DNA sequence: ATTACCCGTGCC
DNA sequence: GGCACGGGTAAT
C-alpha cells in the first residue's frame, strides 16, 4: 500500500457536491432561482433561496438543516453568489451565464479554471492552515499538464485514476506546495504501476481528487474510460492550453504567504472578494462549448440506430453551414438554428410543400424580430415563426425552463398561434426536440409558468407542448 | 445562540 | 462502494 512520506503528507478537501447523481439539473435550477431572486440583503436572499431549494423535486421532505447545507455549499463551492461590502447578495456572473445560455460545459470550464487550494470555498481556518503549510495549487491545470506529459512520455494515451490523483498529486506537498514537475510525478505513478503498488481507495479518501476529475469531465477536458482512468481530450487543444498557460492564483492570498504569521482575520477579509474573483474575466469566447464536437462524441457513444441519426445530423449541419459559406461555428444558437431549419425543411417536404421548404430562412440578428426562423405551417401557407432555445451538456438533462428576452416575449404576444418555441436539448446521448406553440397563450391557460426577469423566465411541463421526433 | 463548511454514517 | 442526509463542530 502506497503512502505519501510523512513529511510531505497533506490532505486537501472541499465541499461535497450533494447532487452528483443529478448534477446538471440541480445546477441549472439553482442558477435560475438565484437569478430570479436578484440582489437582496443577506437575510432576504438566504430565506428566498431556501424556499426555492425546498421546491426542487424531492426536497419537500428533507430537513431544514439539509436544505441550508445545499444553499450554502453549492453556492460557495461553485461561486453562484457574490457578496457586496454593504451586506447584499447578488447572482454571480457565472449563475447569470448558466441560466441564460444553459451551457454546462462552459460553466464547468469557468469553475475548473479558477478552482484552487486554498480558496474561498473553504472555511477561513482551513485556508489559514493551508497557507501556513505553503499550499498553493490549481488541480485542473496540474492534471492537464501531467496528462499531456504522460501522452508524450508513454507515446500513447495516458490515463490517471482517482486513487493516483489522490495519493501522488493532491495529498503530496511536493506537488501542491513545491510545484513538483509533472514528469517527476509521472515517474512515481509509473513506478508504482510497474511494482503493482496499491492505494487506499476508500471512498472518503479518493473522493476529493475524484470530484475534480469529474468536474473536468463535465468541462469536456478529460474523458472517463471504463478502466477507471481519465484521459485528456486532445481535440480541445486551445482550451487546454489556456488552462496550462495561466499562472494566476487568487491575488489576495499572495501577500499572506510571505508573512511570518497569518491571522484568521487576514483570511476572513478576503472571503467576499473570492467570489468576485472567480466570477471576473470569464473567457466566454474560448470556453463556450463546441456543439459539433459534443454531437460527434454522442455519435461515438450511442447505439447503432442513434449513431446513424447523429451521423446524418452532423453531415446535414455541415452541409448547411457550407452552403451559408460559414466556417465551423461554436455558437450554440447557430447550431440549434441550423438543426431547427433542417427539421422545418424536411417537415414541409414531407407535406409535399418543397416550395415552402425552400423559403425557410433564419432572420438576421439585426432585425431583432423576437424569433429566429421564418417557416410555414405547411398545409396552408400560414407563417410559423420559430424561436429556438438550445441547451447543451455532457449528460442528458431534465430541466424544464428557459429565458426569453422582452423582444421575444413581445413577439410571442403579438403573433400568438404563429409563434413557436423549439426547445432543443443536445447532449452526448443525442438530441431532443420539444415544441411549444403560442407560449403566451399557454401561459394564459396555465400550461406554463412565467416570471419576469430581464424579459421572462419560462418553466414548462409536458402539458405545455409536444415532444417531436427530430427530422433530419 | 446561530451559522456554515466539515464529515460520520447509513442507505441503496 | 458511491453517495448524500443531517448531525458535528468551530467560527461568528
Automatic annotation (TrEMBL):
Give the Restriction endonuclease type II BpuJI N-terminal domain ranges. Answer: 2-275
Instruction: Domain (Protein NO VEIN C-terminal): give its ranges.
Output: 337-429
**What name goes with this protein?**
Uncharacterized protein DUF3883
Q: Which organism is it from?
A: Cocleimonas flava
Amino acid at each position: 500500500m502506497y503512502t505519501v512520506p510523512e513529511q510531505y503528507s497533506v490532505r486537501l478537501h472541499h465541499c461535497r457536491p450533494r447532487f452528483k447523481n443529478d448534477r446538471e439539473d440541480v445546477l441549472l435550477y439553482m442558477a435560475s432561482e438565484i437569478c430570479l431572486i436578484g440582489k437582496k440583503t443577506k437575510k432576504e436572499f438566504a430565506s428566498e433561496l431556501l424556499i426555492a431549494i425546498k421546491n426542487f423535486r424531492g426536497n419537500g421532505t428533507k430537513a431544514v438543516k439539509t436544505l441550508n447545507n445545499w444553499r450554502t455549499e453549492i453556492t460557495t463551492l461553485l461561486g453562484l453568489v457574490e457578496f457586496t461590502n454593504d451586506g447584499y447578495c447578488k447572482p454571480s456572473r457565472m449563475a447569470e451565464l448558466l441560466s441564460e445560455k444553459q451551457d454546462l460545459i462552459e460553466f464547468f470550464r469557468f469553475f475548473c479554471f479558477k478552482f484552487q487550494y486554498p480558496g474561498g470555498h473553504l472555511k477561513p481556518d482551513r485556508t489559514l492552515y493551508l497557507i501556513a503549510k505553503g499550499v498553493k495549487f490549481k488541480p485542473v491545470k496540474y492534471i492537464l499538464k501531467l496528462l499531456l506529459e504522460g501522452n508524450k512520455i508513454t507515446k500513447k494515451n495516458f490515463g490517471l485514476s482517482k486513487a493516483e490523483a489522490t495519493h501522488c498529486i493532491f495529498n503530496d506537498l511536493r506537488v501542491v506546495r513545491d510545484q513538483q514537475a509533472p514528469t517527476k510525478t509521472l515517474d512515481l505513478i509509473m513506478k508504482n504501476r510497474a511494482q503493482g503498488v496499491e492505494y487506499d481507495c476508500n471512498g472518503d479518501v479518493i473522493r476529493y481528487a475524484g470530484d475534480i476529475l469529474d468536474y473536468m469531465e463535465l468541462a469536456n477536458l478529460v474523458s472517463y474510460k471504463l478502466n477507471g482512468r481519465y484521459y485528456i481530450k486532445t481535440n480541445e487543444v486551445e482550451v487546454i492550453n489556456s488552462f496550462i498557460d495561466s499562472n494566476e492564483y487568487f491575488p489576495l492570498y499572495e501577500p499572506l504567504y510571505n508573512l511570518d504569521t497569518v491571522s484568521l482575520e487576514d483570511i476572513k477579509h478576503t472571503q467576499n472578494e473570492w467570489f468576485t474573483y472567480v466570477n471576473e474575466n470569464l473567457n466566454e469566447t474560448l470556453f463556450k462549448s463546441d456543439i459539433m464536437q459534443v454531437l460527434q462524441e454522442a455519435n461515438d457513444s450511442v447505439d447503432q440506430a442513434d449513431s446513424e441519426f447523429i451521423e446524418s445530423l452532423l453531415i446535414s449541419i455541415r452541409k448547411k453551414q457550407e452552403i451559408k459559406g460559414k466556417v465551423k461555428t461554436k455558437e450554440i444558437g447557430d447550431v440549434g438554428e441550423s438543426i431547427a431549419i433542417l427539421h422545418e425543411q424536411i417537415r414541409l417536404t414531407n407535406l409535399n410543400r418543397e416550395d415552402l421548404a425552400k423559403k425557410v430562412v433564419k432572420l438576421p440578428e439585426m432585425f431583432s424580430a423576437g424569433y429566429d426562423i421564418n417557416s410555414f405551417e405547411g398545409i396552408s401557407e400560414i407563417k410559423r415563426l420559430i424561436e429556438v432555445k438550445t441547451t447543451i451538456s455532457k449528460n442528458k438533462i431534465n430541466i424544464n425552463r428557459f429565458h426569453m428576452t422582452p423582444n421575444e416575449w413581445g413577439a410571442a404576444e403579438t403573433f400568438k398561434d404563429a409563434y413557436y418555441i423549439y426547445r432543443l436539448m443536445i447532449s452526448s446521448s443525442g438530441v431532443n426536440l420539444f415544441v411549444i406553440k403560442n407560449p403566451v397563450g399557454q401561459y394564459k391557460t396555465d400550461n406554463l409558468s412565467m416570471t419576469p426577469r430581464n424579459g421572462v423566465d419560462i418553466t414548462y411541463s409536458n402539458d405545455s407542448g409536444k415532444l417531436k421526433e427530430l427530422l433530419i
